[in-house]
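Predict the 3D structure for this chain.
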Amino acid sequence: QVQLVESGGGLVQAGGSLRLSCAASGSTYSVHRMGWYRQAPGSERELVATVATAAASDTYADSVQGRFTISFDSAKDTVYLQMNSLKPEDTAVYYCNAASFVYTVEYNYWGQGTQVTVSS
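Done. Predicted structure below.
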């Protein structure tokens, strides 16, 4: 089992910045990827960014490429999402995700979500 605790959401004006944090605990040795997803009202949950925990490999949604940066601190088992040049359309609940392998089965774990609101 992996537990995830998120922090860092809030209200910011368009053009501003926020940094989200997500600390993992429990069976973190099995986690091979962490990431952030978001869900706006009336929309499906969508991928924002992911990072491999053992390699310098990350992916981004086209909508955040160049504005958001994901990083992973292995010493703290914590993933960060630095969000710059925020837009009103970035408003959503942001969820931390951890993907782990147990034998050949991948398990996904989710945080409780943190609200990000960008005002115009």
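The longest strand covers residues 92-102.
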